[in-house]
Amino acid sequence: MHDRELDAIFRPRSIAVIGASTKKHTIGREILHSIIDFEFNGKVFPVNPKAPVIHSIKAYSTILDVPDAVDLAIIIVPRDHVKRVVEQCGDKGVKGLVIITAGFKETGPAGAKLEQEILEVARSYGMRMIGPNCFGVLNTEPNVQMDTTFSKVRSLPGRIGFVSQSGALGQVIIEYARNLGLGFSMFASVGNKADISGNDLLRYWQDDPSVELILLYLENFGDPRTFTQIARQVTKKKPIICVKSGRTTPGARAVSSHTGALANLDVGVDALFDQCGVLRVDSIEEMFDLALALSSQPIPKNNKVAIITNAGGPAILATDACVNWGLEVPRLKETTKRFLRQHLPEQASVENPIDLIASAGPEGYSLALEAVMKDDSIGSVLAIFVPPVMIDPKAIIDVIVEVRKRYEKTLLTCFMGPAEVIHGSEGLLQNRIPMYIFPEAAAKALADMVKYRRWVEKKPGKTGKYPGDRLKVSDIIEKSLESGKTRLVGEEALELFGAYRIPIAAYALATKQAEAVTRAEKLGYPLVMKINKPEVLHKTDIGGVIVDIRNAKEVKTAYGKLIKSLSRGKKKQRVTEVLLQQMLRGGVETVFGMTQDPSFGPLMMFGLGGIYVEVMKDVSFKIHPLTDKDAEEMIQSVRGYPLLTGFRGSKPVDMEILKEILLRLSQLVGDFPEIEEFDINPFFAAPERAQCKAVDARIILKSPK
Q1: Can you give the residue range of the structural domain that contains 169?
Q2: Residue 623: strand pairing partners
Q3: What is the three-class DSSP state of 104?
Q4: Nearest 5 degrees, angle CA 537-CA 541-CA 545?
Q5: Helix, strand, or coil here: 172?
Q6: Which of 86, 105, 424, 575 is most buried by its number of CB atoms within 10 A?
Q7: pLDDT at 534
């Protein structure tokens, strides 16, 4: 649908408040008052069958009695009357609806049914709808000036678009932003998202010059794939910051693979945001910390931060926070340090952080700020001030403001104390210089700004196309499902991956001791012997793997041990087949995997593998399909990445084959949606491509309906 359809909601020429009330402190009265108090640039029509006049404005019995055209209807009537009112709006020719009334999908099946009926009515008339169960919308543009919320606090005008799925947070968000000096261009509480969702608003704001920064509070995704497509386009033009609640779940679904066990509820959200450039934060407070910086400061040109302080403790806190968030607190240029030595007291430290000592006044801050602003190796500056008794904070603030006017470099400040007790703090807000109480918040904001720069500069990746034997894979899957088998392990799983040219360590099957010896002689030593039963997915857990077999005698011993220890004397459960495999040495054990997320689809995984994969959990996830850039980032993001690049003299592994395998597996997942989960673990990554091979694998197929 064309974005301009939402103009009826956010840029109406006339508004009807259906359910407007004469009683103060009711929602119907407060919303009408908000529209008038905010000086809406359009016509307002109260609708109430029992009142001829409301708020000194002529009221009408129904929307059909309003003599003029109506663009937007705000509906605040009892739930059971909403459908009839929506039908009347349709007959009137209204184009936009904001349904404040609650009691729909959020209350259960009956409410959901009624909500669906209302949506169908709205769509039949071509009306767009926000809600139900929402807090309202606002637009502070001078030619609109509309506030249809029931907030007691008026929003400041600004360049931020805010989407909140929670109506209860609406007033808190507006008030909190106002206290920080932040204003909204548009605000929308989307409630149950029956029609208009966050995706629609992202489209609407994508090219809207009145919105420079987008903030989202989300509780769930209606259509995450569409969100990804839209957000990727939007974030290349303007930042999106999101708080996504629901990081935990009371019970995890049953999974059989390592990948499934590691892919908790929140992994998909992180992967999605990472792949579409959305900056995720953990709280509303952190959201506004970042919004404060992004809405007022240029994006840092690099990750190098200069810290200026008058106290050692805060400098240490700031340095630790910067480093922990991936920023660099580098040595300053010699010319910069020489200048500082010449002009600062002898007791001051001219290293980074620059410690001006407690007695430092405006002159010292001015000199230090000038020096680091001129240092072109520095991307951003964090100025910290702990107010001593003898120095007026306003004098320091005035200096910061004056220096900031001459330079475009990113500048954040930390005045350690609440804004209301920092004399002159309003000067920072008025000049669009962010102020934080503690240095950790400023450091996190800087880190996210740098992260956003990398996203904007990131070039799009390529998916590529790799040859694979689709017929062979299809045949394996089809035969398994026909026989009622959904778990593939051992040679069946390895054979399937081999069909897509995933390198596999040489193996052979044996069902008798003598056969095991013969096959072992052909494979060559050393070997590994494993039980080969589809129902046993974690062989190591039950002693089903014996390693470092070096001769025929050890083959016989290993075979006898597996058969004896795992048969348990029950004929039907006897283990008779084993898999013999070339034993690999000298590589780094890695793991590849995939699991189907109910919301986001296939989640691809890479990490350090072996028996400790679920203990160490050093893995990364991305949403399918993968590009070459995605594959590269997955490999580089694991904590054990230095082990792959060469550690203490060891050779780096073949990175290209790891990227290629991720892309081949991504293609396999796209070709065969019947695959529910899989692991390749371990995959030995070695310096020589010929030595990079998969050792074990398991596949879970979707049960046929």
Answers
A1: 3-211
A2: 603
A3: coil
A4: 80
A5: helix
A6: 86
A7: 66
